[in-house]
Every structure is written in C-alpha cells, then in structure tokens.
UniProtKB/TrEMBL annotation, chain A:
Residues covered by the Phage shock protein PspC N-terminal domain: 108-165
Source organism per UniProt: Flavivirga amylovorans
PspC-related ToastRack domain segment(s): 413-546
Keyword list, A-Z: Cell membrane, Membrane, Transmembrane, Transmembrane helix
Principal place of residence: membrane
Domain PspC-related transmembrane region: 228-367
Transmembrane segments: 139-162, 258-287, 307-332, 344-362
Protein name in the entry: PspC domain-containing protein
From TrEMBL, chain B:
Domain Transcription regulator PadR N-terminal: 19-89
InterPro entries, per the entry: Metal_resp_DNA-bind_regulator, Tscrpt_reg_PadR_N, WH-like_DNA-bd_sf, WH_DNA-bd_sf
Organism field: Flavivirga rizhaonensis
Designated name of the protein: PadR family transcriptional regulator
Pfam families cross-referenced by the UniProt entry: PadR (PF03551)
Length: 621, 113
C-alpha cells in the first residue's frame, strides 16, 4: 500500500506514488541547481517539466493509472542525470567568462548547531566553522567567562546574531561540505537509520515507522535550501590564474578577518567601558556615594544626571556598536541582519542623543551667561602714619592647597554638617587712596542664567575677614551652600590704602595677589615680606636690599696679566706694568717709573735713581 | 584527461550547429528535434538540449510559438529567425572548411604511417 500525491506538471495532472514523487522532486531540484538565473533557469526548468509531462503522458493510459518509481527512473534515464544538463561554458560562451564568482571550494557558514548544544549551540557552531572540537571552544568560553565578564556579552551577541541551522542544507553548509544530492541523502539516511532501528526492534510499529520515515524525508526535502549553492557542482578546469587569484583572495580574506576582529574588539571594549562608567555615574544620582557629589554640584542647569549619562552612552555607544556589527559582518558571512527597523531606531536614538546633549550643553552654558557681583565695603582704622599687616587664614576643614589660590572647588560638610562648596578663588587688589582712612571692599561674584539668579548666588557667598589692631586676617577660601551649585563663585578683595601708610603682606598672601598691575593694583606677589610705603602712584619698598644688578664686574686675567673692573675700581696688571684707579687715587708703575696721583698730590718717581723724583703737593700748585 | 569528456565536448561543440540545421527547413518542437538528434546518435540523454535551446533563443537565433497538443502539454515549436539563418549559413561554411581540414590532417597522418 502506498500513498499517492497529486501533481501538476506543465499544466497536466498526474497521480504519483509518494516515493516516486520524492525522487522526481529531488531530480528537478538537482537540475535547477545546475543553472543560474542568467542562463534562463526558470524557462529551462519549465521546458524540462513540459517534456517530462509529455513522457509521463505517453506512459499512462488513463487518468487512474499512477506513476511509480519505475516510470520516474525511465524518464530520468531518458532525460539524463543532472550532470548531463551542464553546459560547458568555455565552449559556448561568446566572451570568456570571469571565473571569480565561480566558487570551487564549498564555503563554510557560521550557524548555531542546536543538535549538539549545551546552551544555544554557539560553541558547536563555532567549532564546525573553525574546524576544532567543540570542547576547546567551550573551554575557551569558560576561560573568557571567568577571566572577564565580557565573554558573556560576546556570547549573548553571538547567540542573537548567528542564525540557527534549521534546514538540512544549512546543517550541511555548517560543516563546510558542498550541498548536493548525495550529501543531503546521506544526511537524511542518518536520520532514517535511527528510525529503522526502532522499526526493527518493534515489529508492531513498522507502519508507523515507515510513516515517520516518509514524513521526515518529505519534510527534509521540502525545507532544504538548494538555491544558494547553485553553482557549486560546476566542474571547472583550473588555470594558473585561477589559482593565483585564489591565493590573493585568500590573503585578502585573512586580512579582512583581521580587520573584523579589530573592529569587534574596539567596539565591544568601548561599549563595555562606556556602560560601566556611565552606569556608575548614573547610580550616584540615586545612591549617594561620598566624593562623587561633585558631578551634581557642577550641574548648574539641574539636568538629571542619568539623562546626560544615557545621551552620552547613545552618542558614543551607537557608532561603536555599528563598528562592532561591521566587524562581525566581516567575520561571519551569513550574519543575521539586525533589520532596518533596528538600524533606523538606533540612528534615530543617536541623533536624538546628540540633540539632547547639545540642548543640555546650551542650558549649562546659559547658567554662566550673566556674571553679577555684590560689593561689601568697610573702613579700616589705618591712617597715613600707620602700618598694616595682611595675612591669609585657613579653615580647619578646607586644608587642601592651603595658601594657594585655586580655581577648583570641593564639597565638604561645614561645622553644622551642611554640605558646602569650598573654593579658594580669592584675589587681592591694592590701590592707593587720598582718603585719610583705609578701606576694604569685598566683591563677590557668581554666574547665572539671568540677573536675579546670579545676584542671588553672589549674595550666598560667605567670605569673612577680621581686622584686629593693625592686622588684617583674610580668609583664604569662600564658601557657599551646595544648593547654589558651582557657578564660578569668586571673591575679589580691594584694599584702598592712604598715601603714606605702610603695608606688610605676609608670604601667605603671595598667590592671592594679582600678578599684573591691572585695575590699578600696586602690590604684586613679588612684594610680599617687605614693608611697603604707599605713594601716590605706587609703592616704595622700605627694607628692600639695594639693587645691584646695574653694577659691572669685569675680571679678565691669565698667568701674567689681568684687567679688573669692579666696585674697587680699575686695575690693569702686566709682568712689568701696573695701573690702578681706585678710591686711593690713580697710580701707574713700570720697571723704571712710578706715577701716583692722589690726595697727597702728584708724585713721579724713577726707580733707577732715587734722586730723580718730581713731587707736587697741594700747596705747591 | 578522460576520453568521455573529450567525446562529450566534441559532440557539444557541434550540437548548436546541428540544432540549427534540424530547423533549417521546418519548425519543430523539442521532441522532434530530439528524435532527429538521437537517431543520429548525437545525443544520448535529452537533458542537454534544453539549456542549448534557451541559449540559442536568447541569442536571437531561434524563436518559438505555442501549439496545443492532444496527448500532453502544449508544445513549443522552434524556428529559425533571419539572424539564425545567416548564422547557420556561416556555420555551414565553417563546417565544410573544418571537415576538409580535419580530413586532410587525419589522412596525412595515415599516409605517414
């Protein structure tokens, strides 16, 4: 008893035995694979089907007769095996065909082998692809998992992106064997044997087993994807240039794979680090980790930190994801596409993130558009004859960079346990005044997106100083409650000193004094530790050492002769000549004569003869 | 080098010429062309002819028309186009030249022996 199938061949209706049907179907598929579309495959196939229909009609007398394997075999022997359909292109082609697209070796494709899987078949798929045993791939995974968690991410990505080998053809492709009738039949037979074993043992279930067999055969045959391997069984005579081309292609492929690996690594590492970095910052917003509050304080625009993190992640991460994807694509021929929807969604997200970041940037910048200041003035009891000493004072809490001006800031808890911003952006500007009393003016300034906000922030700056006797103690830091955010708060201390008064800046003030004489500032960092008298347009140093830089010292000498010019005067010496000009007067001397001009007068003396000398005294002139 | 392949290539080389020659006088459908070629032992299996016919048709040497059949599916009747006729003429000349040449070469060899 056999099942029959109804088929329509070139418009003619036939009853056909199931076995015969499968045989015929395989035969037609095999022929189909012998042609390419450019050769007019569909037309050739329909001609062949028409011919087969004709041959069948000759063999069946009436409509009720069934076509059996015998008839199919006859027809196949008339029509010829698939190989007989091949047209040798090199004989018939008008133009010599380029042979590049004719693959001579079957190409392996990466699939997940779910038949031999532990988790998802990624490992056994990779094993098929690279040709080692799956156990090594699994070991490698275990090492990757335990060494760095990144392996897990890679595994999941491969799981998502690598397709599962579903059809027989895909399973054959996975192992790299060419997909042809004999291989498919072999694969199906493997399946048969399991079933027939069962059938042998359980005699009762023979019928059921046969049904299973036929079902599995038909399913397998139906699902096989023949078309892709269309050209595989073409025989080709290799020429030298084919081989050369293949060698070049091989190296090119190796190079491409290398680039692919690089791209994957770059993409994956960047994304992982980005996620770790931004996640830890994003979390800070909800869980307060000490020391990380800074992020919140800088954030004058009050933008949620997680939003910035997310935007940054997308802006940077998406291009790297595409890099990663590109790498995978180079490495894996038949990578599942992530789909246009996903691609455009990512592109959209990327654009939105960029726009978001720009908007946040502008908001942040606008917080600093207006710079306003609040001025507090006080007179100091210092008159023209007094001496003022200026010192900087530290906070016990804020000790970093003590006595150094610094434009960075810190967030600390103040004495009352409130979060406070500390900053040491203090500048001192000293100016002369004709008023009788000295005056101090504290100028607090801060940024904000508008006038009121800037003023408000400037007012909230706390800055203290104390004046005691003739000593002025200035804080070396400013504080402001953390709610005001960091918005470039700074303090400028203006000191107006009466002309004639004396001021002494301790060395602690050095880095707070203005370097340049702008704003009419008269005291620079170099003037600390000296008593400075204020004059109309500047200062006079009272205890500075006399400048010696203008003096010239010349000392040229060798063994016998020398020339010296220094604070003592001028001295020229030679073996037998000696000329001196100094505080004592002028004297010149050689072997025979000595000349002296000094307070005593002029004295010329001959050494040879003591008697011959000329002397002039003051009185003698 | 297999003798079978060489034989097959020799046959295939003249197959196009032969198909055109079969259609020289009258249009014919595939089974008729096949009959002639099979009788002449040029073809062993039928399959070979289909890609050739399609190729010749695509090259504009052949055209076809459909005719209903009483015993099976409709039949494609092939016929030569004007270009096909010219092409055949050319091939005829080449063939006689070739025949001549092959005759000379092969007979020379026998005389030498």
């Amino acid at each position: 008893m056999n099942k029959t199938v109804n088929i329509n061949l070139a418009g003619i209706f036939f009853h056909i035995d199931e076995d015969a049907y499968l045989k015929l179907q395989r035969y037609l598929e095999a022929i189909k694979r012998s042609f390419t579309d450019s050769q007019g495959r569909s037309e050739i196939i329909s001609d062949i089907e028409a011919r087969i229909a004709e041959l069948f009609s000759e063999r069946v007398q009436n409509n009720k007769e069934v076509i059996r394997v015998k008839e199919v075999d006859e027809v196949i022997s008339i029509m010829g095996q698939p190989e007989d359909y091949l047209v040798d292109d090199e004989i018939f082609e008008d133009e010599p065909q380029t042979t590049y697209n004719r693959k001579t070796s079957p190409s392996k494709k990466l699939f997940r082998d779910t038949d031999n899987s532990y988790i998802s078949g990624v490992s056994s798929g990779l094993a098929h692809y690279f040709g080692f045993d799956a156990i090594w791939v699994r070991l490698a995974w275990i090492i990757l998992f335990s060494a760095a968690g990144t392996g897990i991410l890679l595994y999941i990505l491969l799981w998502i992106l690598v397709p599962e080998a579903k059809t027989t053809a895909e399973k054959i492709m996975m192992t790299g064997e060419p997909v042809n009738i004999s291989n498919i039949e072999k694969k199906i037979k493997d399946g048969f044997e399991n079933v027939t074993d069962v059938a042998k043992n359980v005699t009762d279930s023979v019928g059921a087993a046969a049904k299973n067999v036929s079902d599995s055969v038909s399913n397998a045959a139906k699902s096989v994807d023949f078309t892709k391997q269309g050209n595989k069984i073409k025989s080709s005579s290799k020429t030298f240039f084919d081989t050369l081309g293949e060698v070049i292609m091989f190296f090119f492929k190796v190079f491409a794979k290398f680039i692919g690996i690089l791209l994957i690594l770059t993409g994956a590492i960047t994304i992982i680090f980005l996620i770790i970095a931004l996640f830890s910052i994003g979390v800070v917003n909800f869980i307060h980790i000490p020391g990380l509050d800074l992020v919140d304080v800088v954030n004058a625009g009050n933008t949620p930190v997680w939003l910035v993190s997310l935007f940054t992640l997308f802006t940077v991460g998406i291009p790297f994801f595409f890099l990663f994807y590109l790498g995978l694509k180079i490495l894996v021929n038949n990578l599942k596409s992530i789909g246009n929807v996903a691609k455009f969604t990512l592109l959209g997200l990327w654009l939105i993130s960029i726009i978001g970041l720009v908007v946040i940037g502008i908001r942040q910048a606008s917080e600093h558009t207006i710079d306003e200041s609040v001025i507090v003035k006080q007179e100091l009891n210092i008159t023209a004859n007094d001496t003022l000493k200026v010192k900087m004072v530290d906070s016990d809490l804020y000790m970093i960079n003590r006595h150094y001006r610094n434009s960075s800031f810190k967030v600390l808890n103040n004495e009352n346990g409130e979060k406070t911003i500390y900053r040491s952006d203090i500048r001192i500007i000293v100016k002369p005044t004709t008023d009788s009393l000295a005056k101090i003016s504290i100028d607090k300034s801060a940024d904000g997106s508008h006038y009121e906000k800037a003023i408000e922030r400037a007012k909230n700056i706390n800055y203290n100083y104390t004046f005691n006797g003739n000593e002025l103690f200035l804080d070396s830091y400013l504080t402001t409650p953390v709610e005001n955010k960091f918005s470039d708060q700074e303090v400028v201390v203006f000191l107006y000193l009466p002309v004639g008064s004396v001021v002494y800046f301790e060395s602690t003030t050095r880095s707070f004094l203005n370097h340049w004489n702008h704003n009419g500032n008269i005291v620079t960092p170099g003037d600390t530790n000296h008593y400075l008298q204020i004059t109309d347009g500047g200062i006079t140093c009272l205890n500075c050492p006399v400048e010696e830089s203008s003096k010239i010292n010349i000392d040229i000498h060798d063994d016998e002769s020398s020339v010296k010019i220094d604070s003592n005067g001028l001295e020229i010496k030679d073996e037998d000549v000696n000329i001196k000009v100094n505080a004592k007067g002028i004297s010149g001397e050689d072997e025979a004569v000595e000349v002296k001009i000094n307070s005593d007068g002029i004295n010329i003396k001959s050494k040879d003869n003591d008697n011959s000398s000329v002397k002039t005294n003051n009185s003698d002139i | 080098m297999k003798i079978e392949n060489t034989k097959a290539q020799m046959r295939k080389g003249v197959l196009e010429f032969c198909i055109l020659s079969v259609l020289k006088d009258d249009d014919a459908y595939v089974a008729e062309i096949l009959g002639t070629l099979k009788d002449a032992k040029l073809l062993v299996v039928e399959g070979t002819i289909y890609p050739l016919l399609t190729r010749l048709k695509n090259a504009g040497l052949l055209n076809y028309r459909w005719e209903e059949s009483t015993s099976g599916p409709p039949r494609k009747y092939y016929g030569l186009t004007e270009t096909g006729k010219l092409f055949l003429k050319e091939l005829n000349t080449t063939w006689s030249e070739l025949q001549n040449a092959v005759n000379i070469v092969t007979s020379q060899k026998t005389t030498k022996k």
